[in-house]
Amino acid sequence: MTDTRRPATLGAFHHVTLGVTDLDAAVAFWAGNFGLTTRARREGPDAGLGRLWNIPADAIRRQALVHTPGAMVGGLHLVEFVAPDPPVRDGARVYDRLPK
């Protein structure tokens, strides 16, 4: 049964995961440009994440969770892979409209 007295909401995302080629540069970008702070950081393979994504644990090099200070949700999970795939828009020009 749907409660019609309250509007439907999606709620909030806990975090979004982004694959990065250089974790230190990514953390510096989000901290320097948007004021995000590092909540947690992990070095080395991650067996749990590997199982979740169906990849070898040692494919993950490092990771960090960054958030707006004081926020409980809405963070970024930055993951640096040992051998990352090329970026979706690798070689794209600023006027290209679609991924290459």
Separate helix tally: 2
Give the rounded overall mean pLDDT: 82
Largest sheet: 4 strands, mixed
Strand content: 25-35%
- In terms of structural class, how would the helical and strand content be classed? alpha+beta
Q: Ranges with pLDDT <50 over ≥5 residues? A: none
Query: What level of helicity do the residues show?
Result: 10-25%
Distance N terminus to C terminus?
Answer: 45 Å
**Shape verdict:** globular
Q: Report Rg.
A: 17 Å
Record the strand order, biggest sheet.
1-4-3-2
The overall strand count is: 4
- The H/E string reads EHEHEE
Describe the fold and architecture.
The chain is α+β, with helices and mostly antiparallel strands. 19% of the residues lie in helices and 28% in strands. It contains two helices and four strands; from the N terminus they run βαβαββ. It has helices at residues 23-34, 47-53; strands spanning 15-20, 37-43, 60-67, 75-81. It has a four-stranded mixed sheet with strand order 1-4-3-2, covered by helices on one side. The longest helix has 12 residues, at 23-34. The chain is globular.
